[in-house]
Amino acid sequence: MSQRLQGRVALVTGASRGIGRAVALRYAAEGATVVALARTQGALEELDDEIKQMTGSKAVLVPMDLRDGDKIDQVGAALFERFKRLDVLAGIAGALGMLAPVGHIGLKEWAEPIDVNLTANWRLIRSMDPLLRMSQAGRALFVTSGVVRGVFPFFGAYAASNAGLEQMVRIYAAEVQDITQVRANLVDPGIVRTRMRATAYPGEDPLQHPAPEEITDVFVELAEASCERTGEIVRARARR
C-alpha cells in the first residue's frame, strides 16, 4: 500500500464485518492507527489479529452498541486522553430495520434504523467534532444508501434514516467548512456483497456484486489530509 494515511488516527464504526471491516483493514494497510468500534468483541479481536499480522501494529478495540449515546461521549474523552485529536471519523455502522409497509412498522422496528443510522451518527459528530478540529485535517465520512434517491416500497424506515443522515452531514459540512479544517462527506457504496444486502434481497446471487474490500478506494480518498471535498455524496467505484 502507498501509506496514504500514515500517522492518522481513524475511528471506524461497524468495524466487525462488511464494509466497516474492509475499511478498517484498508486504513490500517494505508498506515492509519485504527480505532475499531463494533458490538461483537470476538469479531473485533479477529480484526485486530489480522491488522497485527498485516502491519505489525495493533488496533484500538471499542466493543459497544452505538445506541448507547453516553458511551460515545466516553469514547471521545478516551480518544482525547490518548491521542489529543481524531483525524478521521468513518461512520459505517448501519441497520436495515424492518422491511414492511410504513403503516405496519412497529415502534421498536422503526427506532432501530433511526437510532443507528441517524441518531448515533449525530452523537458521533457531537462528541468527535472537537477532536476533528484538533487535527490539522479532520475528515468525517458516513455511509448512506441509494434508497434515498428513489421510491423503494417497504424500505420506509431505512430510507428515512438515511435521508436524515444525508441532510445532517451536509449541514454539518457547511457549518464547519469556512472556520475549520474539517471536511465531511457521504459515501453511497452502491450494491455490495454484505449481510444487509442478503437480508434485504435473499434470493439474489451475492457473487454478482462486489465484495466490500473492492470499494474501499473512496474511503481512503475522503480520509486523506489532502482531500478538500466536502458536503458531497460520493458514489463508490469497485476495483475488480
Verbal overview:
It is a single chain. The chain has 240 residues and is of the alpha/beta class. It has a single domain (9-111, 137-235), classed as Rossmann fold (3-Layer(aba) Sandwich), CATH 3.40.50.720. The chain is 44% helix and 14% strand. It is built from seven helices and seven strands, in the order βαβαβαβαβαβααβ. It has a seven-stranded parallel β-sheet, with helices on both faces. Helix 2 links the parallel strand 2 and strand 3. It is globular. It starts with 8 loop residues before the first strand and ends in a 5-residue tail after the last strand. The model has no long low-confidence stretch (mean pLDDT 97).
Strand content: 5-15%
Total helices: the number is 7
Low-confidence runs of at least 5 consecutive residues? none
Annotated CATH architecture? 3-Layer(aba) Sandwich
Average pLDDT metric? 97
Query: Structural class of the helices, strands and pairings?
Result: alpha/beta
Assembly status: single chain
- Main beta sheet: 7 strands, parallel
What level of helicity do the residues show?
A: 40-55%
Rg over C-alpha atoms, rounded to the nearest angstrom: 17 Å
Strand order of the largest sheet: 3-2-1-4-5-6-7
Overall tally of domains: 1
Tell me, briefly, the overall form. globular
CATH topology: Rossmann fold
The N- to C-terminal Cα distance equals: 17 Å
The CATH homologous superfamily is called NAD(P)-binding Rossmann-like Domain
Order of helices and strands: EHEHEHEHEHEHHE
CATH class: Alpha Beta
* Count of β-strands: 7
